[in-house]
Amino acid sequence: MDLLDRRGISGLTMRNLAESLHVTATALYWHVNTKEDVLDLAFDHIFGEVALPEPTEWQHDVRYLMKAWRAVLLRHPWAPAWIGRPVLGPHVLARTEFLQSALSRGGLTDLHLAVTTHLLANHVIGSALTEATFRRTSGPDRRLDARRHITADPAAFPTLNASGHLDANRWNDDELFERGLDAILASTNAAVPTSSTSSRTGVDAVTPDRHARARRAHGATSDTPPVGGAR
Fold it and tell me: Which spans does this entry mark as compositional bias, Polar residues (predicted)?
């Protein structure tokens, strides 16, 4: 994990991984077949950093998980770029189950459930990928220069000037992410039929035992503190 965090995906080879573990490269192939296998395992491992709490109010659970996923992806800046292939590790699947269980308690089913899961995942991935790339390739001066370019010609970009586009003093990444979550969750409220209202309060039909089993199986406990800010 340290190797990936320092060098990124392109800097990971089976040879330098073996060197960091003080084994031969041949020894690694007793456990994995390819570099892609290593990345899949590492990706699933970092999702284990997200604690699975006891289910509560469904929107609270969704917000917690999305913020926690984003925080994990930002702590491991190589990870957002690896998303885009099915990852079936136990930690990823357990947390995706937690998400869809919360959305189901909110009354989402079938297509609405699939679409909302997709929207939330892409919101987390896009936010984390953009921020991680920006941190790696530029800095505050680059964003300031971009903002100055926009404000230098207000006649050409009147809306961008008025909205504060790329103005870090007006809109920070955390706030933009939170507002995006607000918009997605508001859209779920509009999409759910009124008849589902009774199932949208509290924990009601949730099955805590299932989540408790998942937490025990994957090393997360209810008293593990939230990590703060996914697929």
Answer: 192-201
